């Protein structure tokens, strides 16, 4: 490349801009309000608009919050890549919970070991993948394609969650007041669920 071409490439790549600190659910909710019919998710079997994705995630999030799931809980997603997986991720974030996706193609023994370490509050799954969870974790499963779950979620509100709906309000991380760098806390021994500080 010539110097002029490199300079042009560098100019085009200067896309950095300041963004306000926002939670992912807030960004999706804003998009759903601004352009509800715009495509948000495309999977093999379904396409969801932002409005549809937000409504589905809200129904599931309201149900999870009503079950007492929120900040400091782990929601495991044991689903293949799909619109339901994205809905589950967004619903977990709306409650303030952390989520952990499982590779449903992994050996059953590995999946159960991860579940044992994480001790999830709930496992979002489908009928095809529920048997992979084992008995102890299967009891905590919410099977999204089950008829009773469909009826349950159909009656849940489609409105965005507020802090009044959550077990604990969403909080933003604040920067440290000291300029002294701190090491992140060590994860528990044997844990396969590790979170970035």
Gap from first CA to last CA: 41 Å
Strand % is 5-15%
**Fraction of residues in H or I helices:** 25-40%
| Count of runs of 4 or more consecutive helical residues | 7
Average pLDDT score: 86
In order across it, which strands form the biggest sheet? 4-3-5-6
Structural class: alpha/beta
Main sheet characteristics: 4 strands, parallel
Identify the overall geometry.
globular
Number of distinct beta strands = 6
What is the helix/strand order? HHEEHEHEHEHEH
Low-confidence stretches: 186-197
Rg estimate, integer Å: 20 Å
Structure overview:
This protein has helices at residues 3-12, 24-34, 50-66, 83-95, 108-118, 134-138, 147-154; strands at 39-42, 47-49, 74-78, 98-101, 122-125, 141-143. The chain has 197 residues and is of the alpha/beta class. The chain has a four-stranded parallel sheet, with helices on one face. A two-stranded antiparallel sheet has the order 1-2. Strand 5 (122-125), helix 6 and strand 6 (141-143) form a beta-alpha-beta unit. The relative contact order is 0.14.
Which tags fit this structure?
197 residues; two-stranded antiparallel ribbon
Short description:
This protein is of the alpha/beta class and 197 residues long. It contains seven helices and six strands. The strands form two sheets. The chain has a four-stranded parallel β-sheet with strand order 4-3-5-6, covered by helices on one side. A two-stranded antiparallel ribbon has the order 1-2.
